[in-house]
Amino acid sequence: MLREMFRFDLKFDRNLLVLTVASTLLMLADYYHVYTGSKPLDRVILYLIAPILITLLVFRQPLRDYGFQWGEWKLGLAYTALGVVIATPIIWWAAQDPAMQKYYLPLFSPALPILTFMDLIGWEFIFRGWLLFGYQRAFGSHALWLQAVPFALMHLGKPELETMSTIFGGFVFGLIAWKTRSFVYPFLIHWYIFTLVVVLAGLAAG
């Protein structure tokens, strides 16, 4: 009986295990600490540089396998343009929410486009590149929802209106990456949305 209690016969895919544990630890590290004095710079290191190093040195796979490429660029640009058109009125409406204004007003600055770029380039790679294409190999299209779950949870503490939408927004971003085989185009859309909501919140509050 004792022997049976401690026999599990578990088998894990090494890369999938590393992907899951490493991504979780990186997100927790981001939540609890500021390492460089700049959250955007921290996120470049945690969500872009660290996964790239693990991919190259541990997985020994090319980065394009994880969406780090231009991919189907014509389709990607079409999705980006469509995303901008659809997102603009939605973001304008959301920015009228006092909770959104209160949260995003402190981010309003002349360096906003650079800061939002740095904040999101790694963020999009880890979700719409690393996790999406890493999980795709084991779980197929279920990877679209699997990467959207931690993405949504990482929005806890932000305005409720935004947070409640992120499970669906994360899925849509993932779908765009899936179709284009690249994280670049959801990044461009997300960068536009983030920058716009801060600008509109700043203008509304001012």
For this entry, give a set of tags.
206 residues, mainly alpha, 75% helix, globular
How does the SSE layout of this entry go?
Layout: H1 2-5, H2 14-32, H3 39-59, H4 73-94, H5 98-104, H6 112-139, H7 143-153, H8 160-180, H9 184-205
Helix pairs in contact: 2-3, 2-6, 3-6, 4-8, 4-9, 5-9, 6-7, 6-8, 6-9, 7-8, 8-9
What report would you give on this structure?
- By secondary structure, the chain is an all-alpha fold.
- It has one domain (15-205).
- Helix content is 75%, strand content 0%.
- The chain has helices at 2-5, 14-32, 39-59, 73-94, 98-104, 112-139, 143-153, 160-180, 184-205.
- Helix 3 (39-59) runs parallel beside helix 6.
- The longest helix has 28 residues, at 112-139.
- It starts with a helix and ends with a helix.
- The model has no long low-confidence stretch (mean pLDDT 95).
The fraction of residues assigned to DSSP E strands is under 5%
Q: Would you identify the regions where 5 or more consecutive residues have pLDDT less than 50?
A: none
* Residue share in helix: over 70%
Shape: globular
Give the class from helix and strand content and strand pairing. mainly alpha
